[in-house]
């Protein structure tokens, strides 16, 4: 296949580039490098089967030659990023999805949308199956991300139903691994960075909120299986092992040998950062198991050790 990956210089996007190249495909990575980094794909430079185009997908996209698939991963998925850049977040989810779908229609190729567990908002159903419609505050600070992805899903289904584009929707739950940005503000890079610096881990609120963490290689396998499947309706991709943020902090401290413990940060001092912060999150992956014959294989401790090893090379030594 000849595949375009938007957000190809990002965390998940760059891992997808690697995997598709290993599988023998030709990859074009597109990124405006607003949150992605050229470092993530520098090792691919000069290959005949790889190209990079610096472009903002909210503007008209031109890609010469045929394409077999467009994977739309361009996004600002970290709460810190989307609170800082709310309008870009809305634009890349809405306008960027429209442009990339238009490209897929023009090329007559398959399209995969990287959607999110955030479409479920602060869920009232637990764990979350694809049939749950969600509990989202459209006007809260997280609304810019959640609603742009909900719009993106609606747009993908409209192109599927009206234009017969072969669309796929991956609802991606918290994913972690090497190449996450150290400063992206999310719990994995924050805690690992703090632990490697011997600092207390910053637990927001009481730390009883839960998340389920999927290692990036598992996620990439799921995305590719979904792309190659005939499933047009959304499919959850994530690891159903669920931890409270407190438990997660203990695991990070144990794996890094950090003695500094954790500090609880009162929600009132975090302002918008934690407004509408989902209290629980765990994917129901029954559909992915049945339709894609996919499930994660990398446990949290194993994936965290690989992530910690990678972060050690980037955090200044104590
Ligand atoms: N969190 C935390 N300390 C941090 C960063 C995040 O306690 O330094 C919490 C955050 O409030 C949320 C969970 O960890 O409940 C996951 O946050 P993240 O930003 O990774 O992404 P989210 O899953 O909310 O999109």
Give the strand line-up of the largest sheet.
Answer: 3-2-1-4-5-6-11
Which secondary-structure class do the elements indicate? Answer: alpha/beta
CATH architecture designation of the largest domain: 3-Layer(aba) Sandwich
Report the count of strand segments.
13
Secondary-structure element series: EHEEEHHEHEEHEEEHEEHEHH
Domain module tally: 2
Number of DSSP helical runs: 9
Q: Cofactors and ligands present?
A: uridine-5'-diphosphate
Give unreliable regions as ranges.
Answer: none
Question: Separation of termini?
Answer: 46 Å
Global morphology: globular
CATH class of the largest domain: Alpha Beta
Radius of gyration: 19 Å
Model description:
- The protein has 318 residues and is α/β, with parallel strands linked by helices.
- It has two domains: 2-175 and 215-237, Rossmann fold (3-Layer(aba) Sandwich); 177-211 and 241-312, UDP-galactose 4-epimerase, domain 1 (Alpha-Beta Complex).
- It is built from nine helices and 13 strands.
- It has helices spanning 11-22, 79-84, 86-107, 143-163, 187-196, 216-228, 245-256, 286-292, 300-312, and strands at 2-6, 26-31, 50-54, 69-72, 110-116, 167-172, 175-176, 201-204, 210-212, 214-215, 235-237, 242-244, 262-265.
- The strands form four sheets. A seven-stranded parallel sheet has the order 3-2-1-4-5-6-11, with helices on both faces. Strands 7-10 form a two-stranded parallel ribbon.
- The chain is globular, with a radius of gyration of 19 Å.
- The protein starts with a strand and ends in a 6-residue tail after the last helix.
- The mean pLDDT is 96.
- Bound molecules: uridine-5'-diphosphate.
- Uridine-5'-diphosphate binds next to helix 5 and strand 8.
């Amino acid at each position: 296949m000849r595949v375009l990956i938007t957000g190809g210089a990002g965390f998940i996007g760059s891992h997808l580039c690697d995997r598709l190249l290993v599988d023998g495909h030709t990859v074009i990575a597109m990124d405006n490098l607003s949150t992605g980094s050229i470092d993530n794909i520098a090792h691919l430079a000069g290959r005949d089967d790889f190209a990079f185009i610096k472009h903002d997908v909210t503007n008209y996209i031109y890609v010469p030659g045929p394409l077999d698939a467009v994977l739309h991963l361009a996004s600002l998925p970290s709460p810190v990023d989307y609170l800082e850049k709310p309008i870009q977040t809305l634009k890349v989810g809405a306008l960027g999805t429209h442009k990339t779908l238009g490209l897929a229609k023009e090329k007559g190729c398959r399209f995969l949308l990287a959607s999110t567990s955030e479409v479920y908002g602060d869920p009232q159903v637990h764990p979350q199956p694809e049939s749950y419609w969600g509990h989202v505050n459209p006007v809260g600070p997280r609304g810019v991300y959640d609603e742009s992805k909900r719009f993106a899903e609606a747009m993908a289904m409209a192109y599927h139903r009206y234009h017969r584009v072969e669309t796929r929707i991956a609802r991606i739950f918290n994913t972690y691994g090497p190449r996450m940005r150290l400063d992206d503000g999310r719990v994995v890079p924050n805690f690992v960075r703090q632990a490697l610096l011997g600092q207390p881990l910053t637990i927001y609120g009481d730390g009883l909120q839960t998340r389920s963490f999927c290692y990036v290689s598992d996620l990439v396998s799921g995305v590719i299986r979904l792309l190659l499947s005939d499933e047009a309706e959304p499919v959850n991709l994530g690891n159903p092992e669920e931890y409270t943020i407190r438990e997660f902090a203990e695991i990070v401290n144990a794996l890094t040998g950090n003695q500094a413990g954790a500090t609880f940060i009162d929600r009132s001092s975090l302002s918008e950062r934690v407004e509408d912060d989902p209290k629980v999150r765990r994917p129901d992956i029954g559909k992915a198991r049945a339709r894609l014959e996919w499930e994660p294989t990398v446990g949290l401790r194993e994936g965290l050790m690989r992530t910690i090893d990678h972060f050690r090379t980037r955090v200044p030594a104590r």
